[in-house]
Amino acid sequence: MSTLQRLFKQTFVYGLATVLPRMLNFILIPLYTTPGVLTSVAEYGKVSVIFAWFVIFNVILAYGMETAFFRFFNKEEDKDQVVGTSAISLGISSFAFFGLALLFQNQIAHITEIKVEYIKLVIWILLLDALVILPFAWLRANEKSMTYAIIKIVNVVINLSLNLCFLLWLPKLTDYAFAERLYKPDYQINYIFISNLVASAVTLMLLLSFYTKLKFRFNSKLWQNMLRYAFPVLIAGIAFSVNETFDRILLSKLLPETIADTQIGMYSACYKLALFMTLFATAYRLGIEPFFFSHANTENPQKNYARILEFFVVVGSFIMLAVVVFADLLKVIVIRDNAYWEAMGIVPIILLAYLFLGMYHNLSVWYKITDRTKFGAYISIFGAVITLALNFWLIPIISYKGSAIATLAAYGSMVALSYYFGRVYYPIPYNLKKICAYILVSVVFSAISFYGFRENYVVGIALLLLFLAIMYKFEKQTILNVLKR
Questions:
Q1: Is residue 25 a contact partner of residue 301, using CB atoms and an 8 Å limit?
Q2: How far apart are CA 386 and CA 364, in angstroms?
Q3: Rounded to whole angstroms, how far apart are CA atoms 309 and 323?
Q4: Residue 80: CB partners within 8 Å, gap ≥ 6?
Q5: How far, in Å, CA of 236 to CA of 372, rounded?
Q6: How far is 438 from 464, CA to CA, in rounded Å?
Q7: DSSP codes of every residue in 403-424
Q8: Dist. CA 109–CA 167, nearest whole Å
Q9: pLDDT at 54 (0 to 100)
Q10: 312 contact partners, CB below 8 Å, separation of at least 6
Q11: What CA–CA distance (Å, rounded) separates 199 from 129?
């Protein structure tokens, strides 16, 4: 039980550090969707498309080195050499991208259909974010979770404060000379990215000690081995980013120009209501990735890996049901303008999709432990193909509903493939009956609540309590042991 306790503690701290940055997006939705802050639903759609490109370029700039760093940091005796080689590699590649991106900013703006003034800000943010990849990975590898969390929290506070200042307070202070000089009408999107830029700059400053204390030792052979390990992770990451965010880009391309940004704005706002599942899955991934590697050589690690997936599914199934039951209460709190509510039907679909994504992160242990990261690339590419094919097919027919269905299909297929190949190369005794039973019960209860008795909280809460009773019956001893410890 100490294994689960340790994982739970790490997940909680990393969860806090992950929840808060992502909660920033959640907290900012009421700001962005308040009438008068952004000029229209379409403006929020434009911001969402830019952030979709952010995700893709962040993956490219990391090129799998974060995962490679974890693997070789736990594998190699000379850890300083691993850190130095990784840092030099990421530093050179980041500045090379920065120079090329600035040089070709006009061409990038043309391809992405994003204004050059936004592209300049995005390039700077991407550079700063790339330079903190390794310092954050080093903190995780050395289990300095509190330092990791504090720096993430500082980033959130700065970003949120500046967003509030620029978008909410500054327009009301234009009678004062200092505010009048700072404020520009119709500059809202710029203010959003300026806030992000300042927060990223402060984050790098807080992590500069990592670079000042770093032993810049580069081993070319080690670097080649890390790149070989990282390349499939990069391909998987690009494919994964296609699954996660490319639907916004495709919506902007496949829908009529007159409605595209508005549809994206509604879809993106309601998509955020699945944030609670996303936060849990992401926090869990941050906790288990170093855990998987550090426990790979212990006695019978497969048993622990199986129990960890069960724990994730139990908690994740409950979160999905809880969000579905209270979705219409959450939308009033989070999405202030009812012009966005048309897309609420996607919420249960996206929640289930992210439950599957969290399961996939758990199941992916086998190819990371056995150094078969190419399978991660194959699986993610297959998921990306599903995403692209279904989006191209369904968007012209049912708009953003097609994107939600594509996301669910992609992550579901990735879970199935990872489980299948894992049985061949690294068998783990997962309790499939229990896992499938919890998911099925949660899905059925969610469907009854959302599609049969929507906004009937007597029925919804009754279903939630019944699920808790089932969970307590079958997980009583585990729950009591965790709480006792």
A1: no
A2: 19
A3: 21
A4: 215, 217
A5: 12
A6: 13
A7: HHHHHHHHHHHHHHHHHHHHHH
A8: 25
A9: 84
A10: 284, 358, 359, 362
A11: 10
* DSSP one-letter code for 186: T
Cα separations (Å) of 137 from 7, 140, 280?
Answer: 17, 5, 19
Alpha-carbon span 112 to 408, nearest angstrom: 26
How far apart, in whole angstroms, are the C-alpha atoms of residue 308 and residue 353? 19
Hey, how many other C-beta atoms are within 10 angstroms of the C-beta on 96? Answer: 10
Closest CA relative to residue 134, chosen from 62, 215, 221, 71: 62
Would you state the structure tokens that stand for residue 16, as one six-digit string?
């806090």
Cβ–Cβ under 8 Å, residues 392 and 254: yes
Question: Which amino acid belongs to residue 396?
Answer: P
Phi, psi values for residue 35, rounded to 5°: -55, 130
Q: How many C-beta atoms lie closer than 10 Å to residue 266's C-beta?
A: 26
Question: Is the CA virtual torsion 358, 364, 365, 366 positive or negative?
Answer: positive
- Window from 27-31, 71-75, 472-476 with minimum mean pLDDT: 27-31
What backbone phi and psi angles, to 5 degrees, belong to 212? -70, -30
| Prediction pTM value | 0.77
3-class SS of residue 35? strand
Three-class SS state of 38? strand
* Tens digit of each residue's pLDDT (9 = 90 or more) over 63-83: 888 888 888 887 777 788 888
- How far is it, in rounded angstroms, from Cα 103 to Cα 107? 9
Task: Find tokens 């550079």 and name the residue.
Answer: 127
- CB atoms under 10 Å from CB of 415, counted, come to 21
Q: Please work out, in degrees rounded to the nearest 5, the angle formed at the alpha carbon of residue 296 by the alpha carbons of 295 and 301.
A: 75
CA distance 426 to 419: 10
Tokens of 59: 């993956």
Q: Determine the residue type at 387.
A: T
First to last CA, the chain: 8
Query: Domain coordinates of the chain in residue numbers?
Result: 2-484
At 165-208, the pLDDT tens digits run 888 877 776 666 655 667 777 788 888 899 999 999 999 999 99
